Amino acid sequence: MITKRLAQKLANASNKEVSLSLEEKVYAEKHQLLVDGLTVIEIEKNNQFKDAIIERFHKETEELISEDKADFLTKPLAHLKENMHEFIYLESSSFDTIGVDAIAIEYDEVFEVYTAMFGLALQKKFASAMKTFLDEHFNSEKMNYSMMFSGEDGLWEVNLPLNYFNHFEENSTIEETYHFLYTLIFSLGEAVEQLS
Question: Model confidence over 159-174: pLDDT tens digits?
Answer without folding.
Answer: 999 999 988 999 999 9
